[in-house]
């Protein structure tokens, strides 16, 4: 034997293995069209997300005329399925929403993308309703508190939202109306959304509006966290190498995610207040806020377990990066400890992480679309003024008044359609036995997902003008068609993992938009400069500057 034959044999076997692996991977979903390199590697999808415009790329992929292996055109106008990774299929047909996010039977599990999301608390991964892939844990986390988020509970939060709206208006008057200075409206809408969450969760505004900046750097922290999640989530096992590697984490000081630290501080403040017997306590704590209700849920049901999740990554079993098989197993450990339950931070931090940026993006879309479409703004102002003159609209719009305004509600739906705050696929895993989606069979273990940006442009449902802002689409046509469009909206997700806080967002948005439009004339500064948008799973806008003037007299558009 030649001396180099052993390494040569190793190299040869590795090559054979590579060819075998990639061919097998390719053939598994070879009946689904998609970009060439995405059929072999997840690196393209990571690259698209890294460049922060994945939503546009996903839309253009569904608009492409893919040819199948026989050279036939598979998608003259709109591809219902596109392969965006070796094992990942993007579904672009709204008709398949029920198949993928179904309520009936066993729901499809969330993919490993979600394993990257959970924040850490004292070096331990903190489970959350939003991210857990474990359906039993999801039930355990959701059951005790689902009612708190229900529509019927909504009105009890209204006074808390009103308090923040009042402060918002005072700050806008003081800082921008009186001084005539330009306002970074996009940033201020975000301060508003954060302070509402503070108010309804902890009976305490987080101070964004009063201070006029990012308190404790929390907005920035969430931003960087989601940038990490969006990119690493495309190849989730990378997360086990560092951030969630127990070995690495044990060698480092106990880690706290800033969002969890933030929520924890507020809980500690509340515990201190609860111990306080003076009258001050009663004036600062509202027993209708989320924290009080979460605590009541825990007190009512002592069987709610206290848990933590540990992660056991095994070391790489191959040296080739593409063959690193990192098995990790979540193990729940239940304890009877009397220490503060971990359910509480899991619930409160969910509110902060899931409920602030999303609402801020939505609000920016509403205002920006109205300001750049004067005919819509005129129609909406006319509707508001008419309601005001008839005595059906207060200075601070109430929930009951707002939901009775058809054009306002049409603008709300259109904003969620044209710019959904989440801009990546909501991924699920095809269960044992495989399943048919859009007439193609997908083997078990395939990742299937819908990106709301894609679904909301499905020409089958939204027609050829799907790219255009046109709130009127929600008011014309027969009821069946409007119902079909409604059922095709993925703004808040779908099925049993649909957004728990969507009613809170409805409340905030449908109250704030008419209130500010009644109070101010809002003018875009430097209209020529267009808004920039970046996709880090959340798809926020930047550069939304306005000039504000008090609007007198009210009812002026009539
Ligand atoms: C405009 C605002 C919002 C949008 C667009 C939005 C969107 C979404 C979406 C798309 C999902 C489903 C994610 C998936 O399937 O993977 C979701 C889930 C969730 N959202 Fe929201 N959300 C908003 C506001 C809120 C607010 C205000 C809260 C809390 C106060 C909240 C709490 C949650 C929670 C807890 C879940 C997980 C539900 C579950 O898995 O059972 N969201 N949201």
Please tell me the overall pLDDT. 85
As an assembly, this protein is single chain
Percent in helix: 40-55%
Helix/strand class: alpha+beta
What molecules are bound to this protein? Answer: protoporphyrin IX containing FE
Beta fraction of the residues?
A: 5-15%
Radius of gyration (CA) equals 25 Å
Largest sheet: 5 strands, mixed
- Show unreliable segments: 307-341
Q: In DSSP terms, counting alpha (H) and pi (I) runs of 4 or more, how many helices?
A: 24
Q: What overall geometry do the principal axes of the alpha carbons give?
A: globular
Strand order of the largest sheet: 1-2-12-9-3
GO molecular function, one term: heme binding
Family: Belongs to the cytochrome P450 family.
Binding site for heme: 499
Pfam family, one: p450
Architecture overview:
With 558 residues, this protein is of the alpha+beta class. The protein has helices at residues 5-28, 43-50, 54-63, 97-100, 135-142, 151-154, 158-177, 185-202, 208-211, 218-232, 237-241, 246-251, 258-275, 279-284, 290-300, 343-355, 357-372, 374-389, 399-402, 406-418, 452-455, 459-462, 479-487, 502-519; strands at 81-85, 88-91, 109-110, 120-121, 124-125, 183-184, 306-311, 330-335, 426-429, 435-437, 440-442, 447-450, 520-524, 532-533, 541-542, 545-550. A hairpin with a 2-residue loop joins strand 1 (81-85) and strand 2 (88-91). The model is unreliable at 307-341 (pLDDT under 50). The structure holds protoporphyrin IX containing FE. Protoporphyrin IX containing FE binds at residues 129-130, 142, 350-351, 354-355, 358-359, 362, 421-422, 426, 491-493, 497, 499-502, 504-505.
